[in-house]
Amino acid sequence: MCSEHPAALVQAQEWGTAGCATAVAHPNIALIKYWGKRDEHLVLPRVDSLSMTLDVFPTTTRVHLAPEAGHDTVVLDGRQAEGEALRRVVAFLDLVRERAGVADRAVVHSENTVPTGAGLASSASGFAALAVAAAAAYGLDLDATALSRLARRGSGSASRSIFGGFAVWHAGLDAGSAAAADLSSHAEPVPAADLDPALVVAVVDAGPKAVSSRVAMRRTVDTSPLYEPWAVSSKDDLVEMRAALLAGDIEAVGEIAERNALGMHATMLAARPAVRYLSPATLTVLDSVLRLRRDGVPAYATMDAGPNVKVLCRRADADRVAEAVRDAAPGGSVLVAAPGPGARLLRGDGR
Ligand code: ADP
Ligand code: DP6
Ligand code: CO
């Protein structure tokens, strides 16, 4: 809650001059990966990507305007942010301020329930929640498409967490002006048959990665001879993925997602110097997924910029998959996620 007087806050938000807003967003896991930018400043990706927003690990972010303050204050998980983490949020707020025509600095409080920087998409839930809260606090009235575009500027993957369930993020127009590219690069919901999917999340290491997604993808694009072939094959993967989702074919969805992710990791391994996020524990979990398949359980793995594994399966199989993964990674923690909601503003009373 922003205010000790929630009723006053709700009323103020209706006037669009709240000065204070709180939002919640969930991480999303890509089944077709975003890896590589064609424009660093605008955060325009090289490829389209497609994801599932989770119903676990919400981030809650409150933005409070501080007209008297000379600088922004950002508190992340109870600790004052500094360095790159602070710089990213301030740059994002600058963008919002410019659009709103309001120069006020802000105080941002954000709580992740997902481990930060571990390849579990904290930047997605983090910047989606910040986009929704900051837009409201600065009095911008944006629809979901515009919020997706805005969230993208904080972290590319955040564009997809504005939406619930399955979402595709369009790379956007390649020819023409920067403004046209910016306008056309946003996420939107993807039509899917009722798959009743689960993502079993195996957290084998909750610690922060040594190399951020941003730096790793830049190095991959700049130096990896495998990058271009992967980007080309990713286009076909997306076409096939859309068809598999429409058909409700979870085996096909899983197969395409797994090969797309392994291909992405191959591009990083071939970068110079190599970027390797997969650890021995990751491979042990991957072996358990192979065993599940051999035993007739459709289960497919995907990994992001970190060692943690997400296993796509039917919800009806999720307990069995979780048990197999738990046995494979005894030191880790395992939880079962389902498709979750898009980012939303909390009312003044916290509901
Ligand atoms: P991840 O795999 O967790 O998405 P990234 O390397 O993409 O890892 O991004 C991690 C960075 O995202 C953090 O170091 C921080 O700068 C930013 N971040 C994470 N959570 C938040 C948040 N709730 N609010 C603002 N920034 C955040
Ligand atoms: C491997 O969105 O975290 O998770 O745009 O630089 O903030 P920035 O990168 P980020 O990259 C996510 C990469 C990925 C794949 C994905 O989520 O699509
Ligand atoms: Co990220």
UniProtKB/TrEMBL annotation:
Keywords: ATP-binding, Lipid biosynthesis, Lipid metabolism, Lyase, Nucleotide-binding
GO CC annotation, single: cytosol
The protein's enzyme class: lyase
GO terms (BP aspect): isopentenyl diphosphate biosynthetic process, mevalonate pathway
KW Iron-sulfur (keyword) present: no
EC number: 4.1.1.33
Keyword Lyase included in the entry's annotation: yes
GO MF terms, alphabetically ordered: ATP binding; diphosphomevalonate decarboxylase activity
Domain Mvd1 C-terminal: 200-330
All copies of domain Diphosphomevalonate decarboxylase-like N-terminal, residue ranges: 25-177
Family that this chain belongs to: Belongs to the diphosphomevalonate decarboxylase family.
The protein's name: diphosphomevalonate decarboxylase
